[in-house]
Amino acid sequence: MGVSLGSGVLRAQIQKTPQELENVEVREKLGTTLPKDLEFRDETGAPVKIGDYFGKETTPVILTFNYSNCLMLCSVQLGGLLDAMLEMESTVGKDFRIITVSLDPAETHRKAMDTKVHYLERYNRPEEADAGWHFLTGDAESIRALADSVGFQYRYHEKEYLHPAVLMPVSPAGVVSGYVYGVKFETSELERVLKVAAVGGTSEAAQKFLLACYHYEKPEGNGATAVSLMRYGGLAFVVCLFTLFGILWFRRSRAGVSHVTGSN
Fold first, then answer.
1. Is there a contact between 26 and 151 (Cβ–Cβ < 8 Å)?
2. Is residue 92 part of a domain?
């Protein structure tokens, strides 16, 4: 009965996912090499290719997909990344780099520069980070091709982009090394995945769950913005694990009672 309860909880979570968020997910592609010929513009407006950031460099990269006009999730995610970076001994631009790709093809490099400056002003090592944190803009085809190459699934809906919250560590050679989910990040976890990426290894995510920013209208017409829990990887496992512990505890308790009764 406990297992069926766990399955019911999982089904309930999935059924609550709005239709608009279907296929807004991550299909992990560990070991995949990024398409290095894809063309973008950096925050200065200079034309660049993804391959410009790999091969010659010897430091790992954190790849993120965000955009400056995101209603909620992007600023929370990048803010969470920045908070973790402030506690790290490693330095952006020296020990690792970040590539933030805008999901919005209408975003200009000037807007991307404003966003970059916003985060660098909060970072206590702005000189190194200026050369190590890149904010790229591009056309819809290039953005989609890069996102598809790493399994990052998103969609446009009612003037916003619905997308998951995930960081992707990438090796110096441009190979996807791992996935780190969420909007708050453990410093130790970031340090770990960057070390793995630095040597070209791959690592499984410590936690697998997806958050997606979704603006919806309630039936009565009141607008609301929500961070919707789409899928919680391992939910069924956790529920079943606690159920199993409960069953074992119950049986042990029954056995103890029977033993005492028998002794009397």
1. yes
2. yes
Give pTM, 2 decimals.
0.74
Cβ neighbourhood burial of 26 (10 Å; 0-12, 13-18, 19+): buried
Reply yes or no on whether the pLDDT at 264 is more than 90.
no
Exposed / middle / buried, residue 95 (Cβ in 10 Å: 0-12, 13-18, 19+):
middle
The pLDDT mean for the chain works out to: 79
| Distance of alpha carbon 104 from alpha carbon 155, whole angstroms | 11
Higher pLDDT, 62 or 157: 62
Question: What distance in Å separates the CA atoms of residue 102 and residue 110, rounded to the nearest whole number?
Answer: 12
Range of the domain at 184: 17-217
- Assess whether 92 and 135 both reside in one domain: yes
Listed residue (213, 115, 209, 226) closest to 163, CA to CA = 213
Please give the single-letter amino acid code of residue 26.
V
Cα–Cα nearest to 208, from 21, 60, 28 = 28
Look at residue 9 and tell me if it is in a domain. Answer: no
Residue 127 is predicted with a pLDDT of 82
Residue 229 lies in a domain: no
Residue 202 sits in the same domain as residue 247: no
Residues 143 and 196 in one domain: yes
CA angle 136, 138, 139 (to 5 degrees): 165
Same domain for 208 and 250?
Answer: no
